[in-house]
Amino acid sequence: MAVRHINPAGLHRSPAFSQAVVVEQPAKTIYIGGQNGVDAAGKIVGPTVGEQATQALRNLATILESEGASLANIVHWTIAVADGHAINDGFAAFQQAWNPADPPPAITVHVVAGLGPGFLVEIGAVAVV
Amino acid sequence: MAVRHINPAGLHRSPAFSQAVVVEQPAKTIYIGGQNGVDAAGKIVGPTVGEQATQALRNLATILESEGASLANIVHWTIAVADGHAINDGFAAFQQAWNPADPPPAITVHVVAGLGPGFLVEIGAVAVV
Amino acid sequence: MAVRHINPAGLHRSPAFSQAVVVEQPAKTIYIGGQNGVDAAGKIVGPTVGEQATQALRNLATILESEGASLANIVHWTIAVADGHAINDGFAAFQQAWNPADPPPAITVHVVAGLGPGFLVEIGAVAVV
Asked: Where do the DSSP E strands lie in chain B?
């Protein structure tokens, strides 16, 4: 198994994402459902994107750790932020959670009309171990 | 090939989804495009989320059956509901279509500003056989 | 490795997409982050969906070519168009970029409340080589 993060010549470079991630088989793929800012009891942790993104990233880490993996194993993530809320707060939470020494995943970001009741941000991911 | 649905300690549990699904290679992966509430002629089956979700799930089943698989092989699905329509009707359709004995897939749910003309719900999926 | 595009009996057929794509392992999977209408300097190429979709597809092609692949290797793509802008302009760009001799990918299309600042369209993809 090998995972390569690529940023081909001719494309803009960003510290926040890789343009694509190449996965050679055989590998173990972990499909992680959209995580929200809820705690172990299913309660929303707070009313801000920053709080909710921090918790969603914590949930992602918990899932990955249960498989002996970490956030660094994410190859692609899908971020949705509810309309009217700043994406930037989510990026700030990411920068807190992410080790800048690891190449970042490919990313998809949508501002959506809504999420489940009370949710302001949802982060789903595919990870490869 | 092995597929494991995981719900690690420290995360909220729901009967409606698994937190993540782990896929060991080699496996056959089926990428299913977003299914809408359209019949074999491409006609929209009705004006409600419930009717459309029921048909979209039927389309997913048809696709999977053509590969000798079933809804139980879905590891992740991506559900979009058009703004102003209740997500709950989609969940009701899911509960009708889903065998509760099977571990549910990981899930991503977005309320979107819109879909194709007349579409109220779209369900895409990744399945593993 | 084998990739099969399927359109099972009982489902509507469209020249614009396949209902699903089946991937046998082992294969190399390329997870491509959402591409926008930005050039190599990160600048938005123009204010229309058509211009931005054309550039996003060019970026996808650049990424795939850097791996010895092409748009024909895409098995699934996720298209988001900002609310208030016609999806059709994106399809026109697709028809320009896509070789009609190649079976089209599975597709998911959402109209979203927004994307990053100035972006009208985002195209993410999973490709298999």
From this structure: 2-6, 20-24, 28-35, 74-82, 106-112, 121-128
Backbone dihedral region of A71: left (phi > 0), alpha (psi from -120 to 50 degrees) or beta? Answer: alpha
Chain A interface, best mutation among C1, C30, C31, C66, by max A CB count within 10 A:
C31
Cβ-contact C63, A8 below 8 angstroms: yes
Among residues C109, C38, A85, C119, which one has the least CA distance to residue B112? C109
Instruction: Dump pLDDT digits (tens) for C12-60.
Output: 888 778 888 988 888 889 999 999 999 988 899 999 999 999 999 999 9
Q: What are phi and psi of A111, to 5 degrees?
A: -90, 120
How far apart are the C-alpha atoms of C91 and C116, rounded to whole Å?
21
Helices vs strands, H then E, count in chain B = 2, 6
| Cβ-defined contact of B126 to A63 (cutoff 8 Å) | no
d(CA C84, CA C54): 19
Contacts of C8 in chain B (CB under 8 A): 62-63, 65-66
Q: Kindly report, residue by residue over C65-95, the tens digit of the pLDDT.
A: 988 999 999 999 999 999 999 878 888 888 8
Quick one: tokens of A62?
A: 């918990």
**Topology, domain A27-128:** 60s Ribosomal Protein L30; Chain: A; (3.30.1330)
- Write out the two tokens for C9: 């009996």
Mark yes or no for CB contact A12/C39 under 8 Å: yes
For chain B, the domains span 27-128
